[in-house]
Design goal:
This protein is mainly α. The protein has two domains: 43 residues; 45 residues. The chain is 86% helix and 0% strand. It contains four helices and no strands. It is elongated and about 75 Å long. The protein starts with 7 loop residues before the first helix and ends with a helix.
Length: 110
Amino acid sequence: MVVVPLSDAARDAGATNAGGADSSRWVGMVAAGTLAASGALLVTGKRRAGLVAAIAGAALAMLDQQDVVCKWWNALPAYLEEVQGMLNRTQAAVDDLSEQGEKLRRVLNR
């Protein structure tokens, strides 16, 4: 039999979780349960209830992971600029192809 000593921080954390779990831990568990319930509702064909449950679960997950949401929110403008640049390049390529197609039609119609 092996005895493993626990540090004071680990014992304090264990006492906190045993007596009353952290509110963020509860929020995470409720969010996960709500998302699982929404999936079950969607599979059973209850679309409205499943959608409402999915929205509620996503909102709870966002409350639980506020730091991640803030990082994503701050990174969003850079991603949008990148997508806008890609769309601009695609539009320029389509315009160029359209112009070349018109030139080819003119040459072939002569």
